[in-house]
Design brief:
Helix content: over 70%
Radius of gyration: 17 Å
Number of domains: 1
Oligomer: single chain
Distance between the termini: 25 Å
Largest sheet: none
Number of strands: 0
Order of helices and strands: HHHHHHH
Number of helices: 7
Length: about 180
């Protein structure tokens, strides 16, 4: 018989993954929130990487591949690591902080990749700054999406744990290694 908590965690992540295929503004995506959620809640640390990276890959099969995929996947993996920081304390302030940090990690890493590996900007400090400045509208969307989807995932699961005590993590497993 399937255990309710792990099954519910996977179902929540898969539902968020499906949302990437729906029409949405650029950079408003559930993937970073899935990374934070998986990093914070999945019992095994490696499992936190599976959902967001698989969601990216499967949706990229449908949406199409692009040159900077590896950079996007690396930035997403770093967001899972931010989720590990939430394992011991999932207070609203820490969750919001991690969502904002994930937004900035994604912005810094992916735009550095655009500058370093693309041909749109000269490989100078001013070229890097121009790349970051040009990406500010995307950062705004990333922050909005990350905050919204993080609130949906973490808040929704917290409510579900309140309504269904079987979903609560046993006290001995609150901070798995």
């Amino acid at each position: 018989m399937l255990k309710l908590r792990p099954t519910m965690l996977v179902a929540v992540i898969l539902a968020a993954a499906g949302m990437r295929l729906l029409p949405h503004p650029l950079n408003v995506s559930p993937v970073a929130a899935m990374g934070l959620f998986g990093g914070a809640y999945m019992r095994h640390r490696w499992a936190g990487f599976v959902a967001p990276l698989a969601a990216l890959f499967l949706s990229d099969l449908v949406l199409g591949f692009y040159p900077d995929m590896g950079i996007v996947y690396a930035a997403t993996a770093l967001t899972v690591c931010l989720g590990w920081w939430l394992r011991a304390d999932r207070s609203p302030a820490r969750v919001v902080g991690a969502a904002l940090a994930g937004s900035f990690v994604f912005y810094l890493v992916t735009n550095f990749g655009v500058w370093a590996f693309g041909s749109m900007y000269p490989r100078t400090v001013s070229g890097l700054m121009a790349c970051y400045i040009a990406a500010i509208p995307f950062l705004q969307n990333t922050v909005a999406g990350n905050l919204a989807f993080t609130a949906l995932l973490f808040g929704g699961f917290a409510l579900a744990e309140r309504w269904a005590p079987a979903l609560r993590q046993p006290a001995a497993q609150t901070a798995p290694a």
